[in-house]
Specification:
The complex is a heterodimer of chains A (128) and B (572).
Chain A: E1 3-5, H1 20-24, E2 30-33, E3 38-41, H2 52-56, E4 62-64, E5 76-81, E6 87-93, E7 99-105
Antiparallel strand pairs in A: 1-4, 2-3, 5-6, 6-7
Chain B: E1 4-14, H1 18-30, E2 36-39, E3 54-57, H2 67-77, H3 84-91, H4 94-103, E4 124-128, H5 131-141, E5 145-147, E6 150-158, E7 161-169, E8 175-185, H6 215-223, E9 227-228, E10 237-239, H7 247-252, E11 257-258, H8 265-269, H9 280-292, E12 298-300, H10 307-320, H11 322-330, E13 340-344, E14 357-358, E15 371-373, H12 385-407, H13 414-432, H14 440-454, E16 463-464, H15 466-477, H16 479-482, H17 491-516, E17 527-528, H18 536-539, E18 541-547, E19 554-560
Parallel strand pairs in B: 1-2, 1-8, 2-5, 8-15, 16-17
Antiparallel strand pairs in B: 3-4, 6-7, 7-8, 9-14, 9-18, 10-13, 11-12, 12-13, 18-19
Classes of the chains: A mainly beta (128), B alpha/beta (572).
């Protein structure tokens, strides 16, 4: 599973009908389960590993693991967006648990916690 | 009863990506009296190819370069055949577009004089993690109306005139009918025609956006628009498994391509055409021949680069393609001590890196009245990358604004709209009726199997001949009739159903193009084992096609090549 929402950390962005992770996925792969108020990756086989979902999550609740087909499970890559939004500090953990940090200058735009869908549509998840 | 939403606008942009966003801003700035609407199937803030960000602009005229020097380079890199007018006109707008996006907040690496730092003849470095949200923010604040989660299923046409588009909302299931005077297709290229490198939950670990499924190509094909150069497919050379771009390593660390014996095969085998700097098709062809002939695997030789350089590489990848860094972590690879393995991807149909797409004039008008094309969906002009798509968006916007008064509004008939509504929701209706039918993923597997095995997939080293293409043609021909049995149990699956229908339309045209050109001009992109040499006497021209909207028959034709910039077409 390339991208994984940690249910311990995810709070469904409260009452949001279109949380940032759901909105930012270019493939419409992340879905909010309203029965438990948490988001999850519904179509892992269609995940592109592009990561805007991870960067948009205000709780840093989404983890990036490479598909097991391509590499071992221990390694992780976690972006921490600086509050000035001018930097991302990437936390890189290898298979042995060794950590390295990379501070990358960039410009990360703020993503709102919720967004009204056109024409008053509720943003309901039709697949549940 | 499906709820319908009707929209009237002046300029309709289908696809809120690289070209689409820029076109919207340019249209609103230059023609503020006109309404602009963007229809985007995901959310415009991260949709399309720029979802993960970008770390360079790869088409820019650095100091000393001109539109003419750019045309000469792109012409030789594309093995002597391009629409020189299209490439020249787009290069004239690189600076305009880049400066504009910089003013919107894109960080670009400058020296202490404030000039962009060149990283190669045509490349400048950017910190583009948020390039897409920067573009989308500009599009939204331009006054263009953005409709997210809107899957466009077809164009509305009346004879040779395009009058609008239809689609459905992924969020509320409504049927949208958009009437417009001028329509810009900016939906990008087509991935997913061939089997990808990986399976299971890594299936969509592809180079190109797997969500660019050729919708714009297919709509135009169905409407009878003329298409060009589908046979110049794009096969990318990328890092193994992570499928990250190699330019970062090749240029950034100066690492050459080597085979398993350490032989710099591009230099030893392709010296006359430029070695490591050979035209782009050869940079995929060379490695594939090494593997085919048993001298693989193939690598970029990074051994011996300093730890500082390794950190630089990781930082560059984190800005654009973090998977690469995670791949090294998850496989215990230190690129300083072992070479980075590279591979070729499955073929894509794109008008950005290559020139597959709509046949357009210099204003980016297609052969259908009221229809324009920009970006990867437009043909004839390779080497676009990001800034070329911006330039085409600007050109199309200016042309649409100028043409608009003469175009006027034409309203599609209720009969046509009702037919399109039925077509849009057919797979969902099949589910509601309880039909067993064909899941989209199954039709996708069938399509990819045919293309992979008979139309030059990676498993046949991208090669093809008349016998194979005839089988591809025959096997594909039974699928269009079966698309009416696709079944979608929700709106997301309905989108997947349309994606496979669109890719099927593109695949049929692709096979015709590949069969028609009886030469090999772009090895690996289009390798004909039955016509293995380039043939300038008979084939220095464009292969184009038009599909009849009523009969579905694909008519092939050629268009002449026109040299505008003097010089040897095979020398940069």
């Amino acid at each position: 599973m390339p991208v994984w929402v940690d249910p311990e950390k995810c709070n469904g962005c409260y009452n949001s009908r279109q949380p940032p992770c759901v909105r930012m996925c270019p493939g419409d792969l992340i879905v909010k389960d309203y029965t438990v108020n948490k988001a999850y990756l519904k179509y892992p086989e269609d995940c592109w590993d592009c990561l805007p979902c991870i960067k948009a999550c205000p709780e840093e609740a989404i983890e990036f693991h490479l598909s097991y087909q391509l590499g071992s499970k221990g390694a992780k890559l976690i972006p921490h967006i600086h509050k000035t939004r001018d930097f991302i500090t990437w936390e890189a953990i290898d298979n042995q648990g060794k950590e390295e940090h990379f501070k990358i200058q960039t410009k990360v735009l703020q993503i709102a916690l919720d967004e009204q869908v056109e024409d008053g549509a509720e943003g309901l998840d039709f697949s549940i | 009863m499906i709820e319908r939403q009707v929209i009237h606008t002046d300029i309709l942009i289908i696809g809120g990506g690289t070209a689409g966003c820029m076109a919207a801003v340019e249209a609103r700035e230059k023609f503020p009296q006109y309404k602009v609407a963007i229809l985007e199937k995901a959310h415009i803030d991260r949709s399309g190819c720029l979802a993960g960000g970008m770390n360079a602009i790869n088409a820019y005229l650095n100091k000393g370069e001109t539109p003419e020097s750019f045309v000469r380079y792109v012409r030789s890199d594309s093995c002597g055949l391009i629409r020189e007018d299209l490439v020249k006109s787009m290069s004239e707008l690189f600076e305009y577009c880049v400066k504009k996006v910089e003013s919107w907040g894109l960080p670009i690496l400058c020296d202490d004089k404030g000039d962009y730092v060149p990283r190669g003849r045509w490349n400048i470095k950017i910190n583009g993690e948020s390039l897409k949200p920067i573009l989308s923010r500009a599009a939204r604040s331009s006054g263009a109306k953005v409709y997210n989660w809107l899957v466009v299923t077809n164009l509305l046409t009346q004879g040779n005139r395009v009058t609008g588009a239809v689609g459905f909302s992924l969020r509320n299931g409504k049927f949208y009918v958009v009437h417009a005077k001028a329509i810009l297709i900016a939906t990008g290229g087509a991935a997913g025609l061939y089997r990808p490198n990986n399976t299971g939950d890594a299936s969509h670990k592809t180079w190109y956006s797997p969500y660019n499924t050729g919708a714009g190509y297919a709509m135009g094909i169905r409407a009878g628009a003329e298409m060009t150069s589908y046979e110049m497919r794009y096969v990318a050379i990328r890092t193994k498994d992570a499928i990250a771009p190699t330019g970062t390593i090749a240029l950034g660390a100066g690492a050459p391509q080597v085979n398993s014996k350490g032989d710099r095969f591009m230099v030893t085998r392709y010296k006359e055409i430029g070695g490591d700097g050979a035209p782009t098709p050869y940079r995929a062809h060379g490695p594939i021949q090494e593997i085919k002939e048993g001298r693989g695997p193939v690598y970029l030789d990074t051994r011996g680069i300093t730890p500082e350089k390794v950190t630089d590489l990781k930082r560059a990848y984190l800005d654009m393609y973090p998977s690469q860094v995670l791949y090294w972590l998850a496989n215990d690879i230190d690129p300083g001590t072992e070479p980075v393995e590279i591979q070729t991807t499955e073929p894509y149909i794109v008008g950005g890196h290559c020139q597959a797409g709509y046949w357009v004039d210099e204003g980016r008008r297609t052969t259908l009245k009221g229809l324009y094309a920009a970006g990867d969906v437009a043909g004839g002009a390779p080497f676009k990358f990001v800034s070329g798509c911006w330039a085409e968006g600007v050109l199309a916007a200016r042309t649409m604004g100028q043409d608009l008064t003469a175009l006027g509004e034409v309203l599609a008939s209720e009969e046509v709209i009702a037919r399109e509504e039925a077509r849009a929701f057919n797979a969902f209706k099949n589910h509601e009726k309880g039909n067993r039918g064909i899941p989209p993923v199954d039709m996708e597997a069938r399509l990819q199997k045919i293309m992979e095995q008979y139309a030059g997939g990676a498993s046949t080293y991208y090669e093809m001949n008349d016998a194979m293409l005839e089988i591809a043609r025959k096997k594909l021909s039974s699928l269009p009739g079966e698309t009416q049995d696709l079944v979608a149990d929700d709106l997301h699956q309905l989108m997947k159903a349309h994606e496979v229908i669109d890719r099927l339309d593109v695949a049929q045209v692709l096979v015709e193009h590949m069969a028609y050109r009886k030469e090999t001009r772009w090895p690996t992109y289009h390798s004909r084992t039955d016509y293995p040499e380039r043939d300038d006497v008979n084939w220095l021209k464009f292969v184009n096609s038009v599909r009849d909207p009523k009969s579905g028959k694909i008519e092939m034709m050629t268009r002449p090549y026109e040299q505008i910039v003097p010089g040897d077409r095979y020398k940069p």
